[in-house]
Specification:
single chain, 240 residues, mainly alpha, two-stranded antiparallel ribbon
């Protein structure tokens, strides 16, 4: 646990070099976009809540799929592995430090959006369900981001692919638009994430049990892949 804490602190110190980029990409741009959402809903409560729940999932997509995925992909570069080979730390601890660091960075966006949702619709929120669904969404997307990061071993390839994948996920998931139920949306796990969030604040009245089953199964598959990739990394006869 102490090594994990030290690894997280190391990540925060390393990010001081990119503090302007982090401030813009994780705080200024998302919160400005949320402000624009609030200005353009015309005071319609349901529309505002619909877009805010979409914003929560969109923020997590951008943070985990793009930023976390790129960080993990960078870890797979030989020169980076050589640097960590000199440290008394495991690959699992390094990966977890990335996960917790980015989760802390995205947390302010989620908290601000949740406070606004509570102010608008406090009477219809099931708080335990809402918090649980946010955590489930974070686990799903962080697992997806880490899996993509381990899949793309070349950081420079990942720089071109992962932001594009993030945009595709935003496009094919009904975050800011309404879509009828279909097989296309049913097989998209991110659709289940946003559906569960909307159900917990009273915006969706359909059956959701299969969405929980689907997401848990999806998480188990991602966990198996990530664990296998971490266990297979070797460097200079040292197994991480």
């Amino acid at each position: 646990m102490n090594r994990l804490f030290q690894a997280i602190l190391f990540e925060f110190r390393a990010f001081r070099v990119f503090k302007i980029q982090i401030l813009i990409s994780l705080f200024i741009m998302p919160l400005s976009y949320m402000f624009l959402i609030l200005l353009n809903t015309g005071g319609n409560r349901q529309t505002t809540l619909y877009l805010l729940t979409g914003f929560v999932v969109a923020s997590l997509i951008g943070t985990y799929v793009s930023l976390l995925g790129l960080r993990v992909s960078n870890l797979m570069m030989p020169e980076v592995l050589e640097m960590y080979a000199a440290f008394p730390i495991t690959m699992r601890t390094i990966a977890l430090s990335y996960l917790f660091t980015y989760s802390l960075y995205v947390l302010p966006q989620i908290i601000v959006a949740s406070i606004i949702i509570a102010i608008i619709n406090s009477s219809s929120i099931t708080w335990g369900l809402f918090v649980g669904n946010v955590i489930l969404t974070m686990i799903t997307l962080s697992g997806l981001g880490m899996s993509l990061g381990f899949f793309f071993k070349n950081y420079f390839v990942a720089q071109g692919v992962l932001p594009l994948l993030s945009w595709i996920f935003l496009f094919i998931t009904p975050l800011y638009y309404q879509a009828k139920s279909s097989l296309f949306f049913s097989i998209n796990p991110l659709n289940s994430c946003v559906k569960l969030l909307r159900h917990s604040i009273g915006l969706y009245e359909g059956v959701i049990i299969w969405d929980y089953v689907y997401l848990i199964g999806f998480i188990l598959i991602l966990s198996f892949f990530v664990n296998r990739r971490m266990r297979s990394v070797y460097l200079l006869e040292r197994r991480f």
